[in-house]
Automatic annotation (TrEMBL):
Gene3D superfamilies: Farnesyl Diphosphate Synthase. PANTHER family: ALL TRANS-POLYPRENYL-DIPHOSPHATE SYNTHASE PDSS2, GERANYLGERANYL PYROPHOSPHATE SYNTHASE. This is Decaprenyl-diphosphate synthase subunit 2. One of its GO terms (cellular component) is mitochondrion. GO terms for biological process: isoprenoid biosynthetic process; ubiquinone biosynthetic process. It comes from Polypedilum vanderplanki (Sleeping chironomid midge). GO terms for molecular function: prenyltransferase activity.
Length: 428
């Protein structure tokens, strides 16, 4: 309890420094964070209340999707995988029950849409007055969910059954796993195809261009840094990093490209700047720009000013990064369950590598497959090091940045719902 209160007070101090120009806003944040520091996580309640504000559940798994032939057939085929070791099973569970659950990002896009409102001159036929958003914004929310879910299915639900060095072997004994790969690829492709169709129906070239750059960023995130044969990411070698830093100047002082033009590709040299730089670049590409550009696109559809669109982008980006830091901390709140894996590019591990590079010897065992890594050993070492506290500071940093952008919007029930979602992500 004492640690939670201290963490709450620390975040409050940071908020007071950056929000001093708005005393009333600072007082509101102080009260809410102190309450959060002393209570349990109210994640589900925050989502439930937010869904009421925008009218109804936002998940793309609506009746018209559940009754489609494609989804029905996929669901029937996926039942055959239950009980198998195919990763699509665990990916599906995490999408539905975990903090990655599918409706949440679409919900955030709709809350931002309602919070910002829309410009005068929008036809009444384009408005969903009961929810306070535009019909095009609701379509965009569904697109965001489909793109994010398809990416998770393709990246986590496909198993490399035959390494390049062992190609040509008989795989008939792996029929269930082959079948699972086919379902994962097909399922992800169906979602991407539907997302592309719906995006085209928006008939807004600027929005389509911006969302396409988000898809490019996601693709880039899968091709940076070392990977094992299953394409699972591995952290940067701390020895190589030190050598690169000695030969490179002013990496940390470089400005993130999205501060100037968020349609341009990111400079991957920033990954060399340290654990925070590596983590930020990886997860901004994988998650941050999708949520950020979705919020920005929502305001584009509402014909809001460019400055307001930029605020929405940075709110979404920092919220996604605070969310990721929160998920990175989850495995370290308890003992590591038997057979459980850790993300080797999570913030606690990256920070610990800076503190003690010796655990990289264990991580290197995952070059062939991350299954060869002793996760219990890494969990034990990281839990005793400074990586946990550094990650909490990282989460507070992006929470603060998201709240700062949020408080630039006028007060409303939608803004309050977004506050509750942000605070629900704070450590229990």
């Amino acid at each position: 309890m004492l640690n939670r209160i201290q963490a709450g007070k620390k975040l409050i101090a940071n908020l007071q420094q950056l929000s001093s120009r708005n005393v009333s806003a600072t007082m509101q944040i102080n009260e809410k964070i102190m309450v959060k520091a002393e209570t349990k996580n109210e994640w589900n309640r925050a989502l439930s209340e937010a869904e009421k504000i925008v009218g109804y559940q936002t998940s793309f798994l609506s009746l018209r999707y559940l009754l489609s032939d494609e989804v029905t057939n996929l669901a029937l085929h996926m039942r055959k995988l239950v009980g198998s070791t195919h990763p699509l099973v665990s990916t599906g569970k995490s999408l539905i029950y975990g903090q990655n659950n599918m409706q949440t990002w679409g919900l955030i896009v709709l809350l931002v849409s309602k919070m910002a409102g829309h410009a005068d001159g929008i036809l009444e036929s384009e408005q969903d007055k009961s929810a306070g958003v535009l019909m095009s914004q609701r379509t965009l929310a569904e697109v965001v969910e489909m793109v994010r879910t398809a990416n998770m299915i393709h990246s986590s639900g496909v198993l490399n059954l035959q390494h390049l060095q062992k190609s040509g072997n008989d795989l008939s004994f792996d029929s269930d796993l082959i079948f699972g790969n086919k379902i994962a690829l097909l399922g992800g492709d169906i979602l991407l195809g539907n997302a592309s169709t719906q995006m085209a129906q928006l008939k807004n070239q600027e929005v389509v261009e911006l969302m396409c750059t988000a898809a490019r960023d996601i693709s880039d995130s899968h091709f940076i840094g070392d990977r094992d044969v299953q394409n699972n990411p591995l952290p940067w070698d701390p020895v190589k990093r030190a050598e690169e830093i000695r030969n490179t100047t002013d990496i940390e002082s470089e400005v993130q490209v999205d501060e100037i033009d968020n349609k341009q590709p990111f400079n991957l040299r920033l990954m060399l700047g340290g654990p925070e730089s590596e983590w930020t670049v990886r997860h901004t590409l994988a998650n941050g720009t999708l949520l950020g550009k979705s919020c920005q696109s929502a305001l584009m559809l509402a014909k809001q000013p460019v400055e307001l669109q930029r605020q929405a982008y940075f709110f979404g980006k920092h919220l996604a990064l605070a969310w990721q830091a929160s998920m990175d901390l989850e495995p370290y709140k308890t003992e590591l369950p038997l057979g459980h894996k850790l993300s080797l590019i999570s913030a606690p591990i990256l920070y610990h590598l800076q503190y003690d590079a010796s655990i990289y010897d264990e991580i290197k065992k995952g070059m062939e497959s991350v299954d060869d890594v002793n996760y219990y050993k890494i969990h034990k070492e990281v839990s005793r090091g400074p990586g946990i506290e550094r990650t909490k500071e990282l989460q507070s940093k992006h929470t603060l940045a998201a709240m700062t952008e949020l408080y630039k919007f006028p007060k409303s029930d939608a803004r309050e719902a977004l506050e509750k979602i942000i605070l629900a992500m704070q450590e229990d």
